[in-house]
Amino acid sequence: MRKNLTQKTILILAILLIFIGGFVGIPKGFSPAAVKQSITDRIHLGLDLSGGTHLILQVMVSEAVGATSDSDLQRILTDLQTASATGATATKPDPKGQPQIIRVTGVPLDKDNAVRSVLEDHYAAQYDIASGADNSYTLTMKVSVVRDIEQRALQQSIETIRERIDNLGVSEPVIEEYGPGTNEILVELPGIDDPGRVKDVIQSTARLEIHEVLGGPYPDQQAALQGNGGTLPVNSELLKAEEGANAGGQYYLLNRIPIVAGTEFRDAQPSTDVNGRPDVSFTLTTSGGDHFYQYTSANIGKSMAIVLDNSVREVATIEGAIRDQGQISGGGITQEEAQNLSLMLRTGALPASIHFLEERTIGPSLGADSIRHGVEAAIAGLIAVLAFMLFYYHGAGINADLALILNLVILLGFMGYTHATLTLPGIAGVILTIGMGVDSNVLIFERIREELRAGKSPAAAVDQGFSHAFQTIIDTHVTTIVSAAILFLFGTGPVKGFATTLVFGLLANLFTAVFVSRVIFEANLNRRQRGEAISIG
Amino acid sequence: MEFFHEVNIDWLGKKWYFLAFSLIFSISGLLSLFFWRGLPLGVDFKGGTLIYLKFDQSPDLNRVRQAADRVGLHDVSIVRFGHPVDNEIIVSLPQRDTREAELDTGRAAIVQTLQRNYAPNGAANAGKLDLDNATQETLAAFLTQADPMHLNNPAVEQVRYPQIADTILNYRDKVKDGLLGSIAELNGQVDSSVAAALEQGAYLSGFTVRNVEIVGPQVGAQLRRQALLATLYSLAGMLVYLWFRFELIYGVAAVVAVFHDTLITVGAFSLANREMTLTVVAAILTLIGYSMNDTIVVFDRIRENLRLVRRATLSEIVNKSINQTLSRTVLTSGLTFLTVLSLFLFGGEVLNGFSFALVIGILIGTYSSIAVAAPMLVAYQDWRARRGKAAALPAGKRART
């Protein structure tokens, strides 16, 4: 018995040391400042305590689906030509609302079989193909393919944003998927309390494309429609030229399918044009360059437009074949814009545009205030509880107090080891842990008192008290852990921070209230004469 | 010492009082929710922009409003916040001024117009740096540009001035709580040449942005749904666990009691016209856990007594169990109430809604495990007996002891 007790005591001390190490670490010295520094290194504070910016953004993934189906549409057009199905054409009936649907219409009767087999050979893996009236076909991208593209667009956006933010020199940013299935990204920027520039850099899609010019410039959309007989031709789009570019503010009719797509740019650098004005020079990838060379050599004399984020930056006439170099000027860009733009082109275009859904900025002074208030409240509550337990339970109160303090040490140690984030609601979770810790002790002590009243010997009363209370403690703790775990899984933000500390706290509490407190009782009983009363108020 | 000794209260005999009490509070909450105040939603759930500002002296709300008017923000609500000596206000813009494409236009507009139209001799400060709202980046850029220490070496400047900017901002935010009294205060903190340069090229606008919350309308709806789902899932999780450990009726009774607590607490938010935020939802989840905890303690005792005491009616057993655990119930509730009360009193404004919910929730949660959950077991038993079914005591599965 005595030997067993020694082992248990050593175990408790070892755990105490391990978890103190968890949140204090190994300080460089023993001065209060060094210890404090060591603690702040290990306990990761949430933005609400440290100050910074929290952004939720949503990736418009349907644009990425649209881009994929656009390039398939381009291939279908080529295939139709190869099959010499004259009169047949492919369009998207609703490019914005249903980017996953392509329609092939006007297939001549004699080519119907050829077209059908081409479509089925080349596209059946990605599309569900349905034939309709008048030899038309509707290709609907498979749900699994759409989901795959959306997921890739989201991941690529996360990586691109991370690279851009790293390039801006923000320290320790968090950039991760937020909430399942909603295509949202959480961005946390510690220490940034005016996120203007960061947001500009994140949000700019930087989708650079080169399109064929079909008509224009038109002074407004009305004129463009009139110039084309009331409706826009198939597979075309009307885009506005950037103010300050040549023909700024006017509209151009462009082929909706780009000659060079955003993914075909390889590098970009800020530079200056012949007049010394800032511009950005870009380089295309090899395959993009080949493609561009073919197109430009075949279309000398025609116009093409450089389009950045759906606005025309520059319109130029093709004067000779170009392979892989070009400049974007126009729009009167400033030096800083040229730098930002080339940064964004280098880090890659976002596969789809981005909307900001939520922004929270916590000023550094507020964060410091919240820590002070939260910690003050926690300490005030703790002291009140500790004092009361001593007062009400006398000797046994010491057990409870030691168990409670150990509980807090373990909780903080957990936080340190797992790099969990301590947030303001997290501090509230700590306070609730104190409450639950007290509850376990009260349950046990009240039970021991009952057993003593029933005439049991101190040792038997302690034994019975613990074993009866144990059941209740397990039930209450498991129930709360179940609900906290569910909160952790389904909750977001503050709810999650709260659930984290609560789960850790309850686990620690199971150990301290049931095991540690009991060892202290047993140690006490051992030192006493048999039958002497224990101090439990 | 002991507060309760051998108490013998007939709790179930008072069930009609309990029922009346619960009904009065639930129904008044419901009436307020549906017909009077509704549930005031915070920016988390409603969408919109909240800007928390702190001033160096008592802010003149009318002048702030006039300044907002000048930039075309006519529909702002401006209220004092926190302790009066803290000189803090909340400026909130309605959802329609919060466009998702450009979330923080409202914030920028408010800050700029206050710098120009509210700060002392605002117009004269045009082109100067506002030291109360400067960020590390802008301050470092200002110092590098001015080079007051005549370092004349870009490489050194790139390192030295950002460090000085850090020192200044650290002093402003951590020591002076966000607002400098005067630029001259910096003399002890940084090189006097730096302070002199700042006297020249910077000014103090007398206010600082403490906190900004901007939530687009889409997220508001999404957060509402998520919070509701998280709560329902966690209730379902507990129901299943209790079903597994006890018996279905115990789970149902506990969940009904917890639902009763949630209803009354949410009703109290409506009656007190307090805003529902994400943090308050966290508090409600806490009180659900807490009330459940209380209920289980009583249920555990009932289960134990059902095995020990053979010749007693269920109501006698329930009464006995409540009385036996009463001492623990009061102690734990009292102590938890103490910690929550300290949070309510000292936790600061940010935690105020959270602790308000818990202060109410702990009182109601303790009450409901005695007055709602336990009587439900007896009512269920009576109902089964009336229908002629075997009066099987819902003792539950044999617990492992």
Name the biggest interface: A-B, 83 and 85 residues
User: Would you tell me the structural class of the helices and strands of chain A?
Assistant: alpha+beta
β-strand number of chain B = 6
Q: CATH homologous superfamily of the largest domain in chain A - what is it?
A: Multidrug efflux transporter AcrB transmembrane domain
Secondary structure: helix percent of chain B: 55-70%
Count up the helices of chain A.
Answer: 15
Main CATH class of the largest domain in chain A: Mainly Alpha
- List the domain count of chain B as a whole number: 2
The strand order across the widest sheet of chain B is 2-3-1-6
Can you offer a commentary on this structure?
The complex is a heterodimer of chains A (537) and B (401). Chain A has 537 residues and is of the alpha+beta class. A five-stranded antiparallel β-sheet of chain A has the order 10-11-9-14-15. Chain A has a four-stranded antiparallel β-sheet with strand order 7-8-2-17. Chain A starts with a helix and ends in a 10-residue tail after the last helix. Chain B is α+β, with helices and mostly antiparallel strands and 401 residues long. Chain B folds into two domains: 202 residues, Up-down Bundle (Multidrug efflux transporter AcrB transmembrane fold), CATH 1.20.1640.10; 167 residues, no CATH class. Helix content of chain B is 61%, strand content 8%. Chain B has twelve helices and six strands. A four-stranded antiparallel β-sheet of chain B has the order 2-3-1-6. In chain B, helix 9 runs antiparallel to helix 10, helix 9 packs across helix 12 and helix 10 packs parallel to helix 12. The longest helix of chain B is centred in the last third of the chain and has 35 residues. Chain B starts with 14 loop residues before the first helix and ends in a 15-residue tail after the last helix. The C terminus of chain B is likely disordered. The chains are: A alpha+beta (537), B alpha+beta (401). Chains A and B meet through helix 7, strand 17, helix 11, helix 13 and helix 14 of A and helix 6, strand 6, helix 8, helix 10 and helix 11 of B.
